[in-house]
User: What shape does this take?
Amino acid sequence: MSVFLVAAKKEMVNDYLSLVTMAGLNPCIIDVEVFALQNTFEASYGSSDDNIALIDIGASKTSLNILKGNSSVFMRDVSLGCGQINQKIVSLVDCSFEEAEQLKFGDQNDRLSTEDLNGIVSSVLTDWCTEIRRAIDFFYSTYPDDQIKKIVLSGGGANIADFRQLLAAETSAEVESINPFKNLYFDNGAFEPEYIKQIAPQAGICLGLAMRKVDDK
Assistant: This one.
């Protein structure tokens, strides 16, 4: 029998439950983000005999989950994310985080040159790849014969094309962004296709949570 043990601080869980209750909702299921993302991946792409790394690049945290078939064999979280870009912009331009978010996407480029923005993004992407490479190297030290053939990205960082290219070069693996809507039908008239394409990597965890049902095992 294979057993996978997950632990979380009671205070953190209670904080989430209190927040949901205050919103007038009745919490029935608590899930782990990496498992929710794994459920989305399996529903969208099916199982594979290859080793696949699911990497979620959030605002302040990056999560790595390496799969062998349908089993999770290695996980790691690092305190890196898209918020680093905003922080560097704030330090350089002396602005609020809200303004930094706009500058990050090229708004008000009179305050931040394209060259400076590219330099900030490049340095952050290098940090991401370095930490991910370290985590993968640790996995290889435990499973030296299990090479990772594909990396599937989710979260806001998955939309950065330069990151996908740099990570592919660093890890010698195929890198792509997750499409959680791959096997789902939605009304084309209700949503713009470009919006769906842009938001897809950020919807991976949400969709995995939405697929859960009470009494799931």
